[in-house]
Write a structure and sequence with these properties.
368 residues, alpha/beta, eight-stranded mixed β-sheet, two-stranded parallel ribbon, 12 strands
Length: 368
Amino acid sequence: MAPAGLLGVCGLLCAWGAAAVGQPCSLDHQGWADCSGKSLLHAPSSLPRNITGLDLSFNSLVMPRRGTLLMHFPSLRSLNLSSNALLTLHPAIFSNLGALCLLDLSSCSITYLHTDAFKGLENLHTLLLRNNSLQELEVPFFLPLRSLLHLDLQNNALVSMDTLMLQLMEAIPWVQLDGNPWVCDCAMYPLQQWLKRRQATQVTCASPLDLQGQDISTLDSWELGCQKSQRFPRDVSPAQQTTATNNTTAPPAGKGGRSWPYLVGFLVAAISISILVALVAKCKLCHKNFTSYRHRPLPETSSIGGSPLEEGTGWDRGSSGWSDSENPPVSSVTGLHAEDDDGFIEDNYIQASEQLPEEEERESHISI
């Protein structure tokens, strides 16, 4: 009995050891390795390096914090990691799998995706992320996925979608978004328009209660709680739609939202320039009036000769610079005595008829 009991204990230990180490993976002739449900903690390194497909689903893989997950399989084109207890995907964990086309990360309890989680996967065509706990998606993690054709985001915890994310997903032909607890409010309008353009169905509201279960693509803006002023024109880009959605009370950009400071500045500058011009003009006028008062008034002139010395008012002989022995200017005196008694000035010119007899008399004397 003792040997039998010992053999039973050894059998249990061997079974536990096989479970801990993991059962060997099956390999087919097409290069596909099936390691599903082998209770593996790490990816097996005993597989051929040239395999093109690897199924590691339903294991307990431990994701490395540094480095890559699969270092020995550069030719891998399909990788199934579904139903593993993966909490986070660290940066560049798949960077050595440049030939990978399909990556299945379904049912891995993923709550967060690092921005560099899919770095190096430029040839990836299919990314399956359904049945996880993703609450939001950051834009940068999509940037390395230039060849993506199929994105599965079903049954996560997404309540809304960023507009820039919607723009990036425009290039992906097949996107699955149903099964998420979408909140159908006015912030859902960009996603509603995106679903309507792609004719997507079965994406339903989870809240509020009056819209629960209704297809998002069939709703109108007023049913989403958007007011008339918040309705988005058809030619507005998704980025502008999100801006108008987040700022429901602010006017649209370019139509008074941020232009009023420039308008106020322009008005202040115009008023200041007008005041400055008015002050300059007023100063010039004051200066002109001030300089006109500094001129000495002209003396009164006589009606006869037009000389300022005629009346003698305001001009003293001593102050004029003439001495007692000096005579006043001849021109003024001559002008005074040149008048006739009747008030007319004598004509000093001799008429031609009077000069003619004098010339004849002069010629007669010369001839004698």
